[in-house]
Specification:
InterPro entries: DUF7154. The chain has 586 residues and is an alpha/beta fold. It folds into three domains: 167 residues, von Willebrand factor, type A domain (Rossmann fold), CATH 3.40.50.410; 113 residues, Jelly Rolls (Sandwich), CATH 2.60.120.380; 262 residues, Rossmann fold. Helices cover 19% and strands 32% of the residues. It starts with 11 loop residues before the first strand and ends in a 12-residue tail after the last strand.
Length: 586
């Protein structure tokens, strides 16, 4: 019965997509859902709008899910091949609601659509969805391939506390990507809808997240500004999410906020369980016709309701993920999911588990093969096998190492020389409470000498540090790599630079403060601040939005309580091509 359906039983996800949808949003959505499959009991998938209606397939493991999804990729030739036939979406949803394979209590349904349905009355389906607390989230191409009625799509998501995105091309891809991020934080704790017109302000009463008091965690959110494809009646929306004590303010639009994708904007704020928050929206439409603004917010806590000709950076198409057999499961899994998500950006992904009694071989995968469940790691000399693998190019490769055990070798200059000669960049996250081994210095040296970096941390800090480290795979072109040997207190001022856009800590460390600012004063990112991520172990990572028309400065104030030399590394990455940077003296 509905009364027996609670949010923590939210263990079924359905991914349904049109056979006519573009491959990029399909693949990105599929990878995202596969990555989060481990969090759910059952994941179901089905391809829509085929001449021969297909059956929903149900899976309890990521391997079978991946095999099923990628063997049923979008193929317009299997579709209706006309502009008049409506989507079969509602027929498929009826089957899902009466299935005998998975509980629908608290299920999440993700729809990626190219074709509108024709039905104008789906109240029976909506009633069943609501009775079972099924939440429907929809991304629909605003340039449809057929069908006549988009209003029921919005109504179905609206009535189930989901939301509906209307967008096309890259906006559809980006919007659906952030929509599926909700799978990591599935517990919705704010869902409000406002019918407005003209200009005005909405003030959501102070609210708290389900985050435990004293803790802080990410709260994804979404806002939609129209119940249809964005049209000329929409002028603007500006809003803030702020703590009532004034210590935190998120502003849209702003340098730190994601843009509007179609009719929806999604992002995340860090919620402190000790604080209350307000959400204030100023809206402007150039019509008095009613408009709907939806607000949604989620949480992970339960809530009862220098190049050579042969080697260029853009050929950076191989990634090696090597991890210690001793590493804890959650850190390993977190990173594996992140690396798998970025697999589509690289020609070859290589994986190996080290520190095993029986040394294991590196495995190589291509074409977004399902690799995360196979992730197998090793001793430092595994790099030699990678460099002499004979299977794939390692020009410009990226190596991500997750280590629990230190190596014993004190001289790895031969490996470093080969890495540098081939522009291989090594990033290492090493547990500062090792399971064995004697020499951590060579790990730092190898990362340093290849323009990567090495993070020493443990427990939750290790997990987060390596999670951020793997995000570099989405921004592979490094354009800042500088190192500074310092002691005592002082300041580092990095010379003015431009982005390549087209027109474990010990007691000697006291503090660090820095700014990244445009020289015209229009943009400043500060650390530490409410908008910046904290220091995880010895490393701090984050994002800044850089304008290709501007120049920037990076100013760092540091304080150590010793005169012994310390090394500060600065790294910055972009999605736009940039040549290899000079390596440090070796």
């Amino acid at each position: 019965s509905p009364g027996a359906c609670l949010p923590h039983q939210n263990n079924t996800v359905l991914y349904a997509y049109s056979t006519e949808i573009d491959s990029i949003p399909f693949v990105n959505g599929a990878n995202r859902i596969i990555n989060f499959a481990r969090l759910y009991g059952i994941i179901a998938n089905v391809r829509l709008d085929t001449k021969q209606e297909e059956e929903i397939e149900y899976h309890t493991d990521g391997k079978s899910l991946s095999d099923s999804i990628f063997s049923h990729q979008p193929d317009p030739s299997l579709g209706y091949e006309d502009t008049t036939t409506g989507s079969n979406l509602y027929n498929v949803l009826k089957k899902f609601l009466t299935n005998k394979n998975a509980s629908i209590c608290g299920a999440q349904v993700f729809l990626l659509l190219k074709r509108y349905p024709d039905e104008s009355d789906v109240s029976d389906i909506i009633s069943q969805l609501r009775a079972n607390h099924v939440m429907v989230l929809i991304a629909v191409d605003s340039i449809p391939s057929g069908g006549s009625n988009s209003a029921t799509l919005y109504e179905m998501s609206y009535q189930t506390n989901g939301y509906c995105l209307f967008a096309t091309d890259s906006d559809l891809n980006n919007g659906f990507y952030f929509m599926t991020a909700i799978l990591a934080d599935p517990y919705q704790f704010l869902a409000q809808n406002f019918v407005v017109s003209g200009s005005g302000r909405i003030e959501v009463p102070p609210f708290k997240s389900p985050t435990p008091v004293g803790d802080e965690e990410l709260c994804p959110f979404a806002i939609t500004v129209q119940n249809r494809t964005l049209d000329n009646s929409f002028v603007s929306v500006n809003y803030t999410i702020g703590s009532t004590d004034g210590s935190f303010v998120y502003a849209f639009p702003g340098n730190q906020s994601l843009p509007l994708y179609g009719n929806a904007q999604t992002d995340g704020v860090y919620c402190n369980g000790s604080l209350s928050y307000t959400w204030i929206i100023d809206y402007h439409y150039n019509t008095d016709a009613p408009q709907i603004i939806q607000l949604r917010m989620y949480n992970s806590n339960k809530n009862d309701l220098g190049s050579t000709v042969a080697c260029r950076p853009y050929q950076n198409n191989t990634v090696l993920y090597a991890y210690s057999n001793d590493i804890d499961y959650w850190t390993y899994s977190w990173a594996a999911n992140s690396i798998f998500y970025y697999a589509y950006k690289n020609t070859t992904m290589a994986i190996v588990r080290f520190d095993t009694k029986q040394e294991e071989e590196i495995e190589f995968y291509s074409d977004a093969e399902y690799i995360w469940f196979l992730f197998l790691l090793l001793d430092l000399f595994i790099s030699e096998k990678f460099l002499n693998n004979g299977k794939v190019s390692f020009c410009g490769a990226q190596v991500l190492v997750l280590a629990k055990r230190y190596p014993d070798k004190t001289d790895v200059s031969d490996i470093i020389s080969q890495l540098r000669a081939n522009h291989v960049m090594v990033h290492i996250a090493v547990d500062s409470v090792p399971s064995g081994g004697s020499n951590s210095a060579t790990l730092y040296e190898m990362a340093y000498q290849t323009n990567g970096y090495c993070a020493f941390a443990t427990d939750n800090a290790l997990q987060k540090a390596f999670g951020w480290m793997t995000n570099i795979l989405g921004f592979p072109y490094q354009f800042i790599a500088q190192n500074f040997v310092v002691s005592g207190s002082g300041r580092i001022e990095i010379p003015v630079f431009k982005a390549p856009l087209p027109p474990a800590l010990d007691n000697s460390f006291v503090s660090m403060n820095y700014t990244i600012a445009s020289t015209d004063g229009s943009y400043v990112y500060k650390y530490p601040s409410a908008q910046s991520y904290p220091l995880y172990g010895t490393a701090q990572s984050g994002y800044v939005w850089l304008n290709g028309s501007l120049s920037y400065t990076w100013t760092i104030d540091y304080h150590y309580n010793t005169d012994a030399p310390q090394v500060i590394e600065c790294r910055m990455y972009s999605t736009y091509y940039h040549d290899f940077l000079p390596l440090p003296d070796f």
